């Protein structure tokens, strides 16, 4: 018996219920919108289902179903194929409808052009990027015959030597610089005046040719008015410092430590102290320059009023300093020869021949004497000695000159120094001997006559030594051994330096005092200039970043800022007074924007002229009057810059002319301009008198054209802050939208009883912001937008890196090397600069979870998780600090990132 027909089956599908149209609902925060009315499958199914149910609504056949007899559902049938093609068309249309809908919202847009156009609707232009800046240090030719000075014009080009695979970059100086050879190397004050007395235990002598050795006898002479003090010193040890050009003579086994340097203080100089011009001579320089201190502007006024030539002043000052090394009030002499007195080698008197009674047959008195030996003075000798003589040396010594010093010394406390009036060679016969001797005619220390009553009786012929042939040694200034500490804002230079300007940049370099052998470099900006006692003192806007060894520290004041980009002069075209919104596209993109204290952090380098008249750049044509000669710049998605003019109502139209629209601008922008230190060395056109150039520090402060992800965050900031900074979010948003800043965090801090907003920033390249000029520009822009009553501190951050070691079991179906590469990629992405926040910690669970989610990983065993500078250890949490106050000082925020070279993965069996 056959089974009954199942009428519930719908073999053709015509009786299937029609699928309901999709109910569209998009919850907040989705990365994409669902906006399609259907897909190919739903469209085709819906049209196929309506074949048998389609009813005509009106007309002759109203209420009929004309397609009910179409029973085929084969897709190769023309009717069904038509429905299939219609479904495909509907699928395509709804796909693009959904894409267009997504492009209409900031969060879901995938095209940079969409975000650019939406941002313009609220007055926000995507940041075109900003050019890198760098400081260039020029070296002026100091060879003999060279001019020693060079004028380096603004716009001087310097090119980089690129690393392999990269192109050379061109930088141009931002302002004119007059460079001098004396500014190639400026040293801090290295010495201080040496003050000695008769009790000196250590002497510093000028030069390295004093030819001293241990045991030499020195004479210290101190003059004070008519009083002259002398003392002999025996050299214990000698240290010759060739690099510093001095010789240290120790006069005691334990010489004292050098005194600390205390900068001198003088009264302030007056521009016109006498009412008349003062002649330039040694006396005037001593009293008005060496003996006073000056503000730089006042000294320049003084020199101008008295018509003092700068070079003559410096030469006179140099001569005064050299003369000061041989001061008449304190002197040191070394004796090159020593000798005994005539008679010191005579035979013992009692050993001479005697008569039968035992009396010595030699005529004359007993020179050994029972009451003491004879004195050296000639008045105890026979009348054959000339009356003009004072004493006789046992031998002739060449090189003894008149007015030189002689020292008679019997013991440590029996000595006297005399001035030699004259000498002569004589023949003597006494003490049972005869021979040539040297006669000394002496004066007292002050040059007065030496009388018999002035001659001490303790100088005996056999026990006294004469030190002669004195040679004066030039005293050197004492070296200053103190290091230059970090954060010090003032530096006293080693000479008088004229011509420096406030706001001028100088390049500082030297060996770090806290890290032997490590060379540090930085740029300092002059805030103030003073001249103290003939030396120049510089005050900088910020203190030294590192401590430096004083004798290694130098400054180069032939330093000027330069920015990335090459100047282009271009004729844009011809104006047409009949056209509204006439526009021209620049032929050599990208247009350079440089840092500026504006809310965006940048400004255009373009100077546009119409009929040789300069027109002004405006942010928008809206608000311009009909005759305002202004224009706007629009940067396309492909970085092409277009100049747009007004319509005669919102901004003036261009006047008609032939090639009357010209522009001078710079081309070059972005992170490619952040060249390494020492790479900018090529001068395509070398200014006269310049020997070379270098960038001591890497270029910094650049920013690429704003990316989509950043634009999503930054575009709303225009309407959120309205360029007014009040709340913490405002500070953070303002900094985030500033060109060259890649990350910012604003927090409240209390430092003592002071409440302040602390703003931590990082560069667009992910590095800490150390460029003082960039910080100054940003602070200026921030100050213009914020409440001036609120205390604000802007700082960069400290970067921390962490390492890890993990044992990973890999599914045998996967290639281990590929899985390990995926793990490293996932870790690098998750713990990159873009993904991490200041003060955000890292946990072991977070690391394990990331590794475990990689395809092919069965399980992971974390062995080590530690800060890179610490020994390996498994820490459950690696903490990073936000900015905070510690011991009264604000400590930088920390950013904890993965050390890409510190990921150690090891395979284990599952």
Explained architecture:
The protein is an alpha+beta fold and 910 residues long. The protein folds into seven domains: 40-110, no CATH class; 128-183 and 558-565 and 669-705, no CATH class; 341-346 and 368-463, no CATH class; 480-557; 567-667, Immunoglobulin-like, CATH 2.60.40; 723-795, GMP Synthetase, Chain A, domain 3, CATH 3.30.300; 797-908, no CATH class. The strands form twelve sheets. Strands 9-8-13-18-15-16-17-14 form an eight-stranded antiparallel sheet, with no helix packed on it. A seven-stranded mixed sheet has the order 26-34-30-31-32-33-27, with no helix packed on it. α1 (40-49) packs across α2 (78-103) and α4 (282-290) packs across α6 (310-324).
